[in-house]
């Protein structure tokens, strides 16, 4: 169940990024949101309304899926964060002392 929701969440996220990028901003954006970019199929205002509604729907889906995934993950008692796990114990062995070379006597 979680895997299906994660895949859906990824698809919604990618669609939301794409819709936001093709919207016409004050600086022009990618230029697809104007009537020239749609090939005259829709007017500039119609395209803007469609993209605004699509962004609103995808944004709502994004937040709803994020909330559902967070609530589903909350029920598991497993530690998921690296900060929750204790650090590994260091070995208690003493460092090896190097052997002293024999000093020749004359």
UniProtKB/TrEMBL annotation:
<keyword id="KW-0813">Transport</keyword>
<comment type="similarity">
    <text>Belongs to the SecG family.</text>
</comment>
<feature type="compositionally biased region" description="Low complexity">
    <location>
        <begin position="91"/>
        <end position="106"/>
    </location>
</feature>
<protein>
    <recommendedName>
        <fullName>Protein-export membrane protein SecG</fullName>
    </recommendedName>
</protein>
<keyword id="KW-0472">Membrane</keyword>
<keyword id="KW-1133">Transmembrane helix</keyword>
<dbReference type="InterPro" id="IPR004692">
    <property type="entry name" value="SecG"/>
</dbReference>
<keyword id="KW-0812">Transmembrane</keyword>
<keyword id="KW-1003">Cell membrane</keyword>
<dbReference type="Pfam" id="PF03840">
    <property type="entry name" value="SecG"/>
</dbReference>
<keyword id="KW-0653">Protein transport</keyword>
<comment type="function">
    <text>Involved in protein export. Participates in an early event of protein translocation.</text>
</comment>
<feature type="transmembrane region" description="Helical">
    <location>
        <begin position="51"/>
        <end position="72"/>
    </location>
</feature>
<keyword id="KW-0811">Translocation</keyword>
<feature type="region of interest" description="Disordered">
    <location>
        <begin position="82"/>
        <end position="106"/>
    </location>
</feature>
